[in-house]
Amino acid sequence: MLLIHDLDSETFKNISSIFSKDTAIVSKEMKNIHPCCGCFNCWLKTPGKCVINDDYTIMPKLFIENNTVVIITKVQYGCYSSYIKNVIERSIGYLLPFLANVNGETHHTVRYKDKIPKMIFIGYSNDTTPSEKETFFELIKGNAINFGAKDNYECYLVDDLLSLKNLLLQKIDNKALKEAE
């Protein structure tokens, strides 16, 4: 499983026992992330690998190696936090530069059709407006289609840590969860 999150260290410490020891974790604690520069070299020169040499160069590989991707993000104006947006942009090498029409919308095609993970998106915020909530769910739907998980994704919005923890306990199937039961 791949977990991508923007939680502060104290909050993550509170939920970390839910995840198995073999969970790949990407968080803002890693610090060394540069923004996507839009060079498209991950598509053209080094297929599937970002050319920016930092801790996030391997993002496309992490998508390929994991059957489940969990993304936990603070919802800001109906969108991801800037950190999560940056991580998703740095993962674009997982896709091909080609476009396809999916339900009347234009989306990228998946580079590795046999390596499409289940995606679970969890947004958190205690003051999301109905309009922001609608925007968030539409954004997630579009990103799930882009990542090839059109029919294999879930999206949730929680307003506190207890709700986040309970949702994770319901949704995450791994060794740590089985040991906790």
Task: Determine the number of helices (DSSP H or I, runs of at least 4 residues).
Answer: 7
What is the 3D form?
Answer: globular
Query: Can you give the helix content as a percent range?
Result: 25-40%
Count the beta strands: 7
Structural class given helices, strands, pairing? Answer: alpha/beta
Ends: how far apart? 19 Å
Oligomer: single chain
Give the strand content: 15-25%
Largest sheet: 5 strands, parallel
Write down the Rg.
16 Å
SSE string:
EHEHHEHEEEHEHH
Q: Report mean pLDDT, rounded to a whole number.
A: 88
Low-pLDDT residue intervals, each spanning 5 or more residues: 174-181
Biggest sheet, spatial arrangement of strands: 2-1-3-6-7
What does this structure look like?
With 181 residues, the chain is α/β, with parallel strands linked by helices. The protein is 34% helix and 23% strand. It has helices at residues 9-15, 41-44, 59-65, 82-90, 130-146, 161-171, 175-180; strands spanning 2-5, 24-27, 68-74, 95-102, 105-110, 118-124, 153-158. The chain has a 5-stranded parallel β-sheet with strand order 2-1-3-6-7, with helices on both faces. It has a two-stranded antiparallel sheet with strand order 4-5. It is globular and about 45 Å long. Residues 174-181 have low confidence and may be disordered.
How do you describe this structure in short?
This protein has 181 residues and is an alpha/beta fold. The chain has 7 helices and 7 strands, in the order E-H-E-H-H-E-H-E-E-E-H-E-H-H. The protein has helices spanning 9-15, 41-44, 59-65, 82-90, 130-146, 161-171, 175-180, and strands spanning 2-5, 24-27, 68-74, 95-102, 105-110, 118-124, 153-158.
